[in-house]
Amino acid sequence: MNNGEEEKENSVVVEKVGGRSSITTCLSRYPLKFISPKKVGPSSIDAVWVYVLNYGGGIVSGDRISCKFSVGDACTMVLTTQGSTKVYKSVESKCSHQTLEARVGSEALLAIIPDPVTCFSTARYHQKQVFNMSSDSNLVLVDWITSGRHESGEKWDFDLYRSTNNIFFDDGQPLFLDTMLLEKDKFGLVKEHMLDYQVIAMIVLLGPKMQYIQNLVQDSVKRIMTEQLQNPSAGLSHQKTKADFFMTKPTLVASCSVFGPKKIGLVVRVASVTTESVYKFLRHQLAPLEPMIGVPPYR
Which residues contact 35 (CB under 8 A, 6 or more apart)? Predict the structure, then answer.
């Protein structure tokens, strides 16, 4: 997709039809395809699911992809994938770009729960996601990346990864501005800074419907890190010294921070040595979403 006309044609609109969340517009063009199953979870749950697929299995060097989503008042939409988003090797140092714009209405919920991005060796990728929210909108956002194709020996071997997530109120007031930049030329070899960690994830929970889940997640993360950092005796044997222990890194590190007026938002950051441990973390932390979206995320 290389011209502005095609970029504008990737869009999904969800509105209330007959009292239920329904897709009223669904347009996609190469290299994207949107699939919306008729039923995900119990019929009593009012939620629309949309799967994003890439023709060819991934994003090709030089691709420029733009998507727009609109979730109407009191509607629920889930955006997900059927596997990791692969970003192929860069050709002639071309960067691939993907932009997502979403508007979430009053008392609506948008849950973006994809599989991780996996960048191949030398890949260059820039992702930007912009959300416009009402004061009582709700958002669940998972944004994560793996170190690469482990089976091919690639670990943090891409040239550039930049992911920007900006959240604004309807009046244009910024609520959350965040960018993660991993660049080989600027910072040297990324894998040297990552040590043994192979996955980085960010989870954003925003809105009144998320308050209960935010509290659960904060308590859970506090408990996880307490167990990770206050269990030296379990890892120490008579052959290990204190210095050995302090050189041992937790296999999963997580932190929480609140943001926004009246602390309406929570951002969780995670680093782990395995992809499966992050899947497990996400399944556990986001399980309370099931009554809202029909099935537990990442089940």
Answer: 50, 51, 53
Q: Can you give 85-105 as a three-state secondary structure string?
A: EEECCCCCCCCEEEEEEEEEC
Catalogue the long-range contacts made by 225-231 (C-beta closer than 8 Å, 24 or more residues apart).
225/250, 225/253, 225/254, 225/255, 228/252, 228/253
| Residues facing residue 202 across a β-bridge | 143, 269
**Whole-prediction pTM:** 0.90
- List the structure tokens of 66: 């733009």
- Which among 111, 155, 151, 107 has a CA at the least distance from the CA of 131? 111
By C-alpha distance, which of 36, 48, 34, 26 is closest to 109? 48
pLDDT, one tens digit per residue, over 200-248 is 999 999 999 999 999 999 999 999 999 887 764 444 344 444 445 445 6
CA angle in degrees (0–180, nearest 5) for 87-90-95: 80
Q: How far separated are the first and last CA of the chain, in Å rounded?
A: 33
3 CB-near residues (< 8 Å, 6+ apart) = none
Q: CB within 8 A of 127, min separation 6: which ones?
A: 97, 98, 99, 100, 117, 162, 163, 164
User: Are the C-beta atoms of 33 and 14 separated by less than 8 Å?
Assistant: no
